[in-house]
Amino acid sequence: MPTTTAHRTCPICDAVCGLRLVLDEGRVLSVTGDQEDPFSKGYICPKGASLGKIEGDPDRLRVPMIREGDRWREASWDEAFRRVETGLTKVIETHGRDAVGVYFGNPTYHTMAGFMYRQPLAQVLNTRNVYSASTIDQQPKHVSTGFMFGDPYAIAVPDLDRTDYLLIIGANPLESHGSLCAAPDFPRRLKALRRRGGTVVAVDPRRTRTAEFADRHLPIRPGTDAGLLFGIIHTLFAENLTSVDLDVRGLPELRELAEEFTPEAVEVVSGVPADEIVRLARELAAAPTAAVYTRIGTSTAEFGTVTQWLVDTVNILTGNFDRPGGVMFTRTAALEIFRTGQPFGTGRWHSRVRGLPETLGELPVATLADEIETEGEGQVRALISIAGNLVLSAPNGPRLDRALPGLDFMVCVDPYLNETTKHADVILPPPRMTQTPHYDFLLLIVAVRNYTRFSPQITPLDDDQRSEAEILARLLLIAGGHGAEADPAAADAMIIDGLLQGVTSAPGSPFADVDVAALSAGLTGDSGPERMLDAMLKLGPYDLSLAELRAHPHGIDLGPLEPRLKELITTPSGLVELAPPELVADVDRLRRALAGPPGEFLLIGRRQLRSNNSWLHNTAPLVGGSNRCTLHVNPADVARLGLGDKAIVRSATGELVVPVEPTDRIMPGVVSLPHGWGHQGSAQRVAADHPGVNANTLTDESKVDALSGNAVFNGVPVTLAPYAEG
Ligand SMILES: Nc1nc2c(c(=O)[nH]1)N[C@H]1C(S)=C(S)[C@@H](COP(=O)(O)OP(=O)(O)OC[C@H]3O[C@@H](n4cnc5c(=O)[nH]c(N)nc54)[C@H](O)[C@@H]3O)O[C@H]1N2
Ligand SMILES: Nc1nc2c(c(=O)[nH]1)N[C@H]1C(S)=C(S)[C@@H](COP(=O)(O)OP(=O)(O)OC[C@H]3O[C@@H](n4cnc5c(=O)[nH]c(N)nc54)[C@H](O)[C@@H]3O)O[C@H]1N2
Ligand code: SF4
Ligand SMILES: [Mo]
After folding, report:
1. What pLDDT was estimated at residue 600?
2. Which residue of 19, 78, 286, 403 is surrounded by the most CB atoms within 10 Å?
3. Ligand 1 centroid to 278 CA: how many Å?
4. Same-domain status, 549 and 604
5. Residues 6+ apart with CB under 8 A from 293
6. Mean pLDDT computed over every residue of the chain
7. For residue 396, is it left (φ>0), alpha (ψ between -120 and 50) or beta?
8. Is position 410 within any domain?
9. How many domains does the chain have?
10. Domain-located, residue 165
């Protein structure tokens, strides 16, 4: 049987693994790790290995769908785009541009089209109601780095392959494979760390796989990490263990802030023993090199931004910031157009109903339902949702489930009819992964080595399919008033020309003498995003091009990370701000919260190896077994409350009946439920057979991290009661 072999980057999670695919007439027969990829070296996880099954899912949509009442029918692309034009234009003409909301979901951080069209689409829509997965994920990191370094994208990653000491707080990379830290084969990298005599410590309310692997696991009461970090900072000052080798400002203020957070005081609120806090400070200071790394456990929490700030601060105080073995900045092959050099600030506008500040051009997802439900000028009446499943992903998702039917118009770009897209008027499905070129514009910004790899489209589109690039370009043209028939190439030219003009004409631009017309004419690529990539590579620091990347199908290693903070700092003072007033102002709120009574039970999340947020539950090999939607409860709590197979969990926003899984992997007083489930009655047949419950029934959209507006998924107060069947 004639088969073909192809290589590409896995687009599912943040680990950017290289894959080797064997295909037969476009159908994926097998997937293995790409041994020749210099970064992932053959590593693959069960999700990557299932890529053929995932993209071959018979429930995936191939052609546009239009809803008439509660019935769906297939439609031609022309009809679907005309319907979008009519729907959006009517809302804009009647209610103005702010009446259109747009949501960019998690996969838009992975796709080339998501990267290219996201900003231009938001600009052309010219609405205040821009939302994205950032505010249910990493917005606290952008805000803290924005205030500390001036650059909201100055995200330092642990230098995993050289560090001697890794403190992991609220991340579980052995199951999530890393996040804001692209490091294929995290397990091998952690093993190598241990083998060279290094130490790994995990701080987590659960004994995760990562915690189990670590030298030490310190259980912590959810939501108290900022206290722990202040305790470490307190000790560093008290014992004269600081060794700051950067140009910083705010050391005295920081020292004063940390004064009250003695290890003994922090023990009381966090449950981490005082001597362990002192030991962490001493070890971080004494290790030849050390890195503190944190993610979702502290970012989607009530003090998300303050915690991200304190993590970078500990790395700075121990002399581990921007140096080999500490935390460092990647230098990407594609020109870093996201570093604008503009002064950082939040709150250029505020949300209409709750007055929450804008950050990086967007408003918090936690207030989208308010904006849809609350009448008045600027009410959201139409929604464009690209690669998102907010009913399962947003805090109090069920409220959105009730709010979305009230919209005048909704269009989704999504391969599935699911809990969210079922409310749309039109669904525009992108083609399969192997029919899509791939380049990780965003994930490679946070890679633990400088590395680049382009994956060309493997299988051509059929006549009745459209690339995601074309879909988004046409939405952009419709939003800009050019109509459903406009040529998508015009949108591409506009974006790429705008980019080149912007880059070359910026004050002090190193590209001032670049001949834009010649560069533009010489770009290669089969699509807008490919030509944009070619431009960014040609202007990038390694002098590469798309042709060069095509000639290296397994990727190119561009070497270990090198110090580069000096070129990134854009604070008005030119210094690293250790005590930015905006962040310091939130410490009072922290103090009060830590002094308050803890809830009886605190709910936290849990990522599962064979899931990815809300959309992989329709692939048979990935569901069942350990991948089930259960509530982890400590056996002592199970006994104390007399819980049986199921429990009723109640929060301020809702209640759920959930199967109980007693496990001593979770500390008493804390319960854990994975998100992304809740597929009752889903059109996805496998998912409907393993529905689980929607964890975001319990999370409270009225609570956000004050500085970033980020949703709070961890540390949600709940009560538990036995559930009697019938
Ligand atoms: N309780 C709780 N809630 C959480 C979290 C938590 O830890 N706890 N985590 C949060 C985090 S970190 C995130 S990132 C969000 C994610 O939340 P969302 O942004 O909603 O992303 P997903 O749940 O991954 O849903 C992705 C959608 O995109 C579709 N899709 C898949 N591939 C493609 C593609 O190539 N193109 C297009 N157009 N669509 C595609 C899928 O069918 C699915 O509908 O969830 C958040 N929600
Ligand atoms: N298999 C799989 N991989 C994924 C995903 C997935 O759904 N499944 N999602 C992807 C996405 S969108 C993201 S953003 C990343 C996230 O990547 P990670 O952040 O590594 O993933 P989580 O498993 O959410 O890890 C958060 C950890 O924080 C702990 N935690 C909860 N509350 C607290 C707290 O208050 N303090 C502390 N110290 N810890 C706490 C949880 O127990 C959990 O172990 O993963 C990505 N990779
Ligand atoms: S770890 Fe992530 S990138 Fe690697 S194969 Fe698995 S899903 Fe794909
Ligand atoms: Mo995420």
Report:
1. 86
2. 19
3. 39
4. no
5. 157, 158, 166, 167, 168, 169, 171, 181, 311, 327
6. 97
7. left
8. yes
9. 4
10. yes
Q: Is residue 189 part of a domain?
A: yes
Q: How far is CA 241 from CA 259, 275, 282, in A?
A: 15, 16, 7
What is the spatial distance between Cα 161 and Cα 192, in angstroms, rounded to a whole number?
8
Residues 497 and 510: their CA atoms lie apart, in Å, by 17
Indicate if 14 and 79 belong to the same structural domain: no
What pLDDT digit, counting tens, does each position of 622-657 carry? 998 888 999 999 999 999 999 999 999 999 999 999
Tokens describing residue 343: 């002064």
**Which residue in this structure is represented by tokens 């959209």?**
701
- Same-domain pairing of 370 and 400: yes
Length of the chain: 726
C-alpha angle with apex 542: 537 to 548, nearest 5 degrees?
Answer: 60
Dmax (CA) of the chain:
76
Tokens for 494, please give them: 């506009």
DSSP 53-121: HHHT-TTS--S-EEEETTEEEE--HHHHHHHHHHHHHHHHHHH-GGGEEEEE-GGGGTSHHHHHHHHHH
Confidence of residue 726 (pLDDT cuts 50, 70, 90): low
Domain that holds residue 694: 599-722
Predicted TM-score (pTM) of the model is 0.98
Regarding whether 610 and 514 lie in a shared domain, the answer is no
Q: If you search the block for the tokens 């046409």, which residue do you land on? A: 474
Beta strands per DSSP E along 271-381: 291-294, 327-328
